[in-house]
Amino acid sequence: MAPKETVKESIENIFLREKPASILLAIAKQNKPYASVISKEVDATYAHTTSVLSEMEHYGLISSNQDGRVKYIELTDLGKNIADALRVLISAFGEVQVISKAEVDTELQEKTTSLRLRVEKIYKEELACRNSLSIKESTKVGRRLGPYCREIRKMDKIPIRAESLRKEFDELKKRIEELMLLKEKLKS
């Protein structure tokens, strides 16, 4: 025999699923709706909607009043509080974008390649075939490489799962460090 589910677990099972949360919010949005209106609003079957409404009524989140053949639904004070909390939670995540691991890796790959090209351009324009740099030239190189050093530090905090991408990133990081050392070495 399975252990009895606690009230906390039951409530979590209701609101950590999309449809029940949507049902509660749909009730909050309307004035005394009934089950078929709610099921259409949240794109759920009537049977599923009535099942969820029964659970909610059992936990004191809603109350229902029969008027002829229609059973109207209202939120209790507890139901209103939970609906408000759900709205706050949803709005807090409104700005969040979910990005897949593949998208993150692709973005990091593109960024790494772009940074490598820009860093090598600085090397060719400012440091290649040079025996020395004036203080002014050294400062200019530092200002050009500085943003890339900061970008590398930010990127270094992102977990890179692909081994080849990690290797490429580490090589770029090392290359920037080499160029910063070269700049200092050439400064006269």
Keywords:
2 domains, Arc Repressor Mutant, subunit A, 188 residues, mainly alpha, rod-shaped
- Give the end-to-end Cα distance, rounded to a whole number of Å: 82 Å
Major β-sheet strand ordering: 1-2
Largest sheet: 2 strands, antiparallel
What fold name stands as the CATH topology of the largest domain?
Arc Repressor Mutant, subunit A
The radius of gyration computed from the alpha-carbon positions, rounded to a whole number of angstroms, is 30 Å
Structural class: mainly alpha
Count of structural domains: 2
Shape: rod-shaped
Determine the CATH superfamily of the largest domain.
Winged helix-like DNA-binding domain superfamily/Winged helix DNA-binding domain
CATH level-two architecture of the largest domain: Orthogonal Bundle
Element-by-element helix/strand order: HHHHEEHHHH
- How many strand elements? 2
Number of helices: 8
- What's the level 1 CATH class of the largest domain? Mainly Alpha
Overall pLDDT, averaged? 85
* Helical fraction: 55-70%
Tell me the β content.
Answer: 5-15%
